[in-house]
Every structure is written in C-alpha cells, then in structure tokens.
Input
Amino acid sequence: MGRFRIDPERSKIWVDARSSLHPIQVETTGLRGYLDAMLVDGALSAGSPTTGSVEIEADRMKTGKVLYDYELERRLEARKYPFIRGSVREVQPLGGPRYRVLGQLEFHGVTRPVEGEVRLRVLDERTLEIEGERVFDLREYGLDPPRILMLKVYPDVRVRAQVVAQQES
Output
C-alpha cells in the first residue's frame, strides 16, 4: 500500500454552469489530498482497498468576472464553509483504466454520498493521473441557483477534475 499525495499545482478543477444567457466557467488549481492505493502492473490492485481524501478552498472558485465572482462567493458562503471536501471510500474496477469511485462530498455544509466514474493513468512508477467528471444539482447541497440581474443560472453544474498524485517516499 502506498500513499499518493495530490500535487496542487498540477491538478485542476473545472466547473461548467449554464445560464439563460451564456455559459459560466470556473477553472482552478489548488486541490489537495491523498490516495492510499496499491498498484499492480499499472492498475489498482483489486485485492487491496483504495481510499483517499481531497479538498479545495471554496474561495478558489472564480470565473474571472467580478460580478459573477461576488455572487458566487456570497452564495457559497466561503467564510462560513471555507472548504469543499471529498472522501473516497471504495473503488471498483470497471475494466481497463476505468473505475467507479464511491465516497462522500461535503459542500456548503451538506455531506452527501456520491459516486462517479474515473480514468486512471500511470504516468511513471511514482505518479498517477486521475480524470473524471460528474453533474451535480446545487439544490441537493442547499444552494438555490442565483439570478444575476436578468440572468438565470440553472441548478445543474458539470464538474471535471484532473488529479495528479505522486507516491510518497
């Protein structure tokens, strides 16, 4: 079993939201955490449990547009809920580089079970790259989609992640 530490500078999160006028996009780095896993021949060992934890500061969620960022920070209540956290409880192989991940997501003070599919790629003997995406309904986490002037934001957002993690010595 090895611990793979997430590289915050090489890992990225993208959030794509839709509005009545145009798309709203967030792209950020800064994801932190770890994955405890055993690799065998470039894949996760089926006989060994894989667990982990990830987190990012809520105030890193920025669009680059002042009005949107102000409203996003206000809605996320970043001072009250400074982190978005996820935990990996179980990983199931789906064939090839694909895996189903079961865990929990803590967002805006609400913790809910979550599952999704990821692709794992071994970059070298000490480095993993994990990619996945999932659509979330903000209302499930106690957030009503904002209205900004005449702009209506829809509740479903697509979150994509590219996580690069290196095995600790």
Helices lie at 66-76.
